[in-house]
UniProtKB/TrEMBL annotation:
Biological function: Catalyzes the conversion of 2 pyruvate molecules into acetolactate in the first common step of the biosynthetic pathway of the branched-amino acids such as leucine, isoleucine, and valine.
EC number(s) stated in the UniProt entry for this protein: 2.2.1.6
Alphabetized Gene3D superfamilies for the sequence: 3.30.70.260, ACT-like. Chain A, domain 2 (3.30.70.1150)
Catalysed reactions, semicolon-separated: 2 pyruvate + H(+) = (2S)-2-acetolactate + CO2
GO molecular function, one term: acetolactate synthase regulator activity
Record keywords, A-Z: Amino-acid biosynthesis, Branched-chain amino acid biosynthesis, Transferase
Species whose genome carries this gene: Pseudogemmobacter humi
Pathway entry: Amino-acid biosynthesis; L-isoleucine biosynthesis; L-isoleucine from 2-oxobutanoate: step 1/4; Amino-acid biosynthesis; L-valine biosynthesis; L-valine from pyruvate: step 1/4
Annotated family: Belongs to the acetolactate synthase small subunit family.
Protein name, UniProt field: Acetolactate synthase small subunit
Pfam family, one: ALS_ss_C
InterPro entries associated with the record: Acetalactate_synth_ssu, Acetolactate_synth/TF_NikR_C, Acetolactate_synth_ssu_C, ACT-like_dom_sf, ACT_dom, AHAS_ACT, AHAS_small-like_ACT
Domain ACT per the UniProt entry, residue ranges: 30-105
PANTHER family on file: ACETOLACTATE SYNTHASE SMALL SUBUNIT (PTHR30239), ACETOLACTATE SYNTHASE SMALL SUBUNIT 1, CHLOROPLASTIC (PTHR30239:SF0)
Length: 186
């Protein structure tokens, strides 16, 4: 008999089940970060995420105050509440950062993304792609005899749903802008 006894049907925990039963679930959070519009700031912000092993699901950047030379970085990331708090604290301590807002925690927000989706197909697949375009309120922005390019603005979930329905109809390429978000209300 071997030195290792394994009981079949035993309810004991496996050595491979290393999950913490008290661990908090990861949540998706949208962060709005107001920064100085100067060279290297975006690289520093991204470096904070990559250096600590945090993932960025979506990233958009644009100058929002020309006279004050400030840009807004909108980041969608995921983590436990403790990890999100840590990300916020670390971003707030960075010198070129003026403000960090967790739009998810602060209340309702409006989030939109723009996507361009190319579908290649003929016959019934083309007709079905056009039907879906109407249902999802997308627009045809380019058309050839064998392809369409659709433009769609909506929540990331809506764009994902549209893309999944287009996949069997010949979806070949997608370009997405990333999430732009603002909190609702005053």
């Amino acid at each position: 008999m071997s030195a290792l006894n394994i009981k079949r049907g035993s309810s004991s925990h496996s050595a491979y089940d290393l999950r913490d039963s008290h661990a908090q679930a990861e949540e998706s959070h949208t962060l709005a970060v107001i920064v100085e519009n100067e060279p290297g700031v975006l690289a520093r912000v991204i470096g904070l995420f990559s250096g600590r092993g945090y993932n960025i699901d979506s990233l958009t950047v644009a100058e929002v105050d020309h006279t004050g030379h400030r840009s807004r970085i909108t980041i969608v990331t995921r983590g436990t509440p403790a990890v999100i708090d840590q990300i916020e604290a670390q971003l707030s301590r960075m010198v070129p950062v003026h403000a960090v807002h967790d739009l998810t925690a602060e209340g309702p927000s409006v989030q939109r993304e723009l996507a361009l989706l190319k579908v290649v197909g003929k016959g019934e697949a083309r007709i079905e792609a056009l039907r879906l375009c109407e249902i999802f309120r997308a627009r045809v922005v380019d058309s050839t005899l064998e392809s369409f390019v659709f433009e769609m603005t909506g929540t990331p979930d809506k764009i994902d749903a549209f893309a999944e329905l287009l996949r069997p109809l010949g979806l070949k390429e997608i370009a997405r802008t990333g999430v732009a978000a603002l909190s609702r209300g005053a």
